């Protein structure tokens, strides 16, 4: 029988030395850029950065008085909710189907994980080609049943395109956690419910899904943050925020106003607001939604 050995040290600086790399990375790549964005959001400067004026919170006042920004917030809400629901529901369906397999489970899991290695911009280009009105295969098939697809002109078509592309990129990530959660559920509970006469759907919604709540809660937070922050490449490669700003979500509006419009103060204010929204959503989810999670 093997016994575990515990190592102790009398060095007072060793714990700090072990934490130092992570703390330094956090300060350089997270805290410092966030503080610079907060400072720049209170400045007004010309596009060349030759003259700056401290204007306090005027950038934020102008921001919330801008109807285009309010429309962008609504677009972001629709896009984030749609992407999260689609990605999580499809990945849960795949995980349930793969978990029922015995021999070919590992093979299917491997194929379903591959799309996660694709960069967001590449995923956007891939779906852009598939839905291209001129050369895409799906518009050709939809035209055969009387549906004219053109995401360059129709805002609803553009939103569907970016939601599908963004969700497809995230399905693999969700699938791994759902499959791990399903495999950790004791089969004795499901077998006992089956002996008692519970149907397959009732066993899933009363036993399996509640036991998946930790993974579901974690993925809910991750997917919302992903939809609001990490989908810039998808939007840029597919619609570039169009048509008529129909897919111009907040993270892409920061880029357009800052790097294309050279309105650096407004762009910094938008990034601060976006960061605040994500922080509030995360706090709300951990504070109230987590209470319904069964660990």
Automatic annotation (TrEMBL):
* Topology in the lipid bilayer: Multi-pass membrane protein
- The superkingdom listed in its UniProt entry is Bacteria
Q: Which SUPFAM superfamilies match?
A: MetI-like (SSF161098)
Q: Where in the cell is it found?
A: Cell inner membrane; Cell membrane
- Domain ABC transmembrane type-1 as annotated: residue spans: 73-285
Residue intervals passing through the bilayer: 12-32, 77-99, 111-131, 158-182, 203-229, 268-289
Keywords, comma-separated and alphabetical = Cell inner membrane, Cell membrane, Membrane, Transmembrane, Transmembrane helix, Transport
Q: What biological function has been recorded for the protein in this entry?
A: Part of the ABC transporter complex UgpBAEC involved in sn-glycerol-3-phosphate (G3P) import. Probably responsible for the translocation of the substrate across the membrane.
Quaternary structure annotation from Swiss-Prot or TrEMBL? The complex is composed of two ATP-binding proteins (UgpC), two transmembrane proteins (UgpA and UgpE) and a solute-binding protein (UgpB).
Can you tell me which family this protein belongs to?
Belongs to the binding-protein-dependent transport system permease family.
Stored PANTHER family: BLL4140 PROTEIN, SN-GLYCEROL-3-PHOSPHATE TRANSPORT SYSTEM PERMEASE PROTEIN UGPA
User: Record's NCBIfam families?
Assistant: PRK10561.1
What is the name listed in the Swiss-Prot or TrEMBL entry for this protein? Answer: sn-glycerol-3-phosphate transport system permease protein UgpA
Organism in which the protein naturally occurs: Pararhodobacter zhoushanensis
Q: What is the lineage of its organism?
A: Bacteria, Pseudomonadati, Pseudomonadota, Alphaproteobacteria, Rhodobacterales
């Amino acid at each position: 029988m093997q016994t575990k050995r515990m190592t102790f040290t009398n060095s007072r600086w060793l714990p700090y030395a072990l934490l130092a790399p992570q703390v330094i990375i956090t300060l350089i790549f997270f805290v410092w850029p966030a503080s610079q964005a907060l400072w720049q959001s209170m400045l007004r400067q010309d596009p060349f950065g030759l003259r700056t004026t401290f204007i306090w919170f005027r950038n934020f006042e102008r921001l919330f008085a801008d109807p285009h920004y309010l429309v962008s917030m609504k677009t972001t809400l629709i896009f984030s909710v749609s992407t999260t629901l689609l990605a999580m529901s499809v990945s849960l369906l795949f995980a349930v189907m793969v978990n029922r397999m015995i021999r070919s489970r590992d093979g299917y899991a491997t194929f379903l994980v591959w799309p996660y290695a694709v960069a967001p911009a590449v995923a956007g280009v891939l779906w852009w080609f598939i839905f291209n009105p001129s050369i895409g295969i799906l518009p050709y098939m939809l035209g055969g049943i009387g549906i004219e697809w053109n995401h360059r002109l129709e805002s609803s078509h553009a939103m569907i395109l970016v939601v599908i592309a963004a969700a497809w990129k995230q399905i693999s990530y969700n699938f791994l956690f759902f499959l791990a959660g399903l495999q950790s559920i004791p089969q004795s509970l499901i077998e006992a419910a089956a002996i008692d006469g519970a149907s397959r759907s009732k066993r899933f919604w009363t036993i399996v899904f509640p036991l998946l709540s930790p993974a579901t809660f974690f993925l809910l937070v991750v997917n919302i943050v992903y939809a609001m922050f990490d989908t810039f490449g998808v939007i840029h490669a597919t619609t570039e925020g169009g048509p008529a700003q129909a897919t111009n979500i907040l993270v892409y509006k920061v880029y357009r106003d800052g790097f294309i419009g050279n309105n650096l103060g407004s762009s910094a204010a938008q990034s601060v607001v976006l960061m605040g929204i994500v922080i509030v959503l995360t706090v709300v989810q951990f504070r109230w939604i987590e209470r319904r999670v069964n660990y």
